[in-house]
Design a protein that fits this description.
The chain is an alpha/beta fold. The chain has helices at 4-10, 57-70, 81-87, 89-102, 136-159, 165-168, 174-183, 194-202, and strands at 18-24, 33-39, 73-79, 110-114, 125-128. The longest helix is centred in the last third of the chain and has 24 residues, at 136-159.
Length: 203
């Protein structure tokens, strides 16, 4: 059975209302999970789009500006730490993706989602494994989401000095785990995640 992704490679599919969706922040112990949805404009291509993790911070920042200026539509959304703890990180990520697509104007005709799971929605869509390196619209979404979340974690570093949020972005590095042990749990930590839950039990 053929898919839109097959068409992207074989016929250079450039549907004007094709949205790409990606998330950033499933693995960290702190902060919201952030998603983005992007409909690229076929008439205004953006060179250099690829998986945001494979780009330098400065290049991501540059591309994020180009995406916002040249995309047909873009939207950034999130699920909060409280929502992550309430419904689990997978469901929170899917919820945030849904919110990002709902925020697009115009609404997409088709949606490609990075990964192997789709939110429960009525959009014509399909998941694309490693889509952030295969589909330009998903790569654009990954860039917007990462730039947004990284900026928020730098702000959290100012609110909660000593945790190293600006450096590790909330991921469970040795430095973050040590800070969690030494300084305790903040309101932005995900209490349902094992290292945070363990620290709370020690308090």
């Amino acid at each position: 059975m053929r898919s839109i992704v097959d068409d992207l490679f074989e016929t250079a599919y450039t549907g004007s209302l094709l949205a790409g969706v990606d998330e950033v922040g499933r693995g960290p112990l702190a902060g919201d999970v952030v998603t983005a949805a992007v409909i690229l404009d076929p008439g205004r291509p953006i060179p250099g789009l690829r998986d945001s993790k494979k780009l330098s911070e400065s290049r991501r920042e540059e591309l994020a500006i180009l995406i916002r200026e040249n995309a047909l539509a873009w939207s950034v959304a999130r699920a909060s730490v409280a929502e992550i703890d309430e419904i689990n990180i997978l469901q929170a990520s899917l919820l945030a993706m849904h919110r990002a697509v709902q925020g697009l104007d115009p609404q997409p005709e088709y949606v490609l989602v990075d990964g192997n799971r789709l939110p429960r929605w009525n959009y014509a869509s399909e998941p694309v494994v490693k889509g952030d390196d295969r589909v330009p619209a998903i790569a654009a979404a990954s860039i917007l989401a990462k730039v947004q979340r990284d900026g928020e974690l730098r702000e959290l570093e100012q609110q909660y000095p000593g945790y190293g949020f600006a450096a590790h972005k909330g991921y469970p590095t040795a430095a973050h785990l040590q800070a969690l042990q030494d300084l305790g749990v903040t309101p932005v930590h995900r209490r349902s995640f094992a290292p945070v839950k363990k620290r709370l039990q020690q308090a």
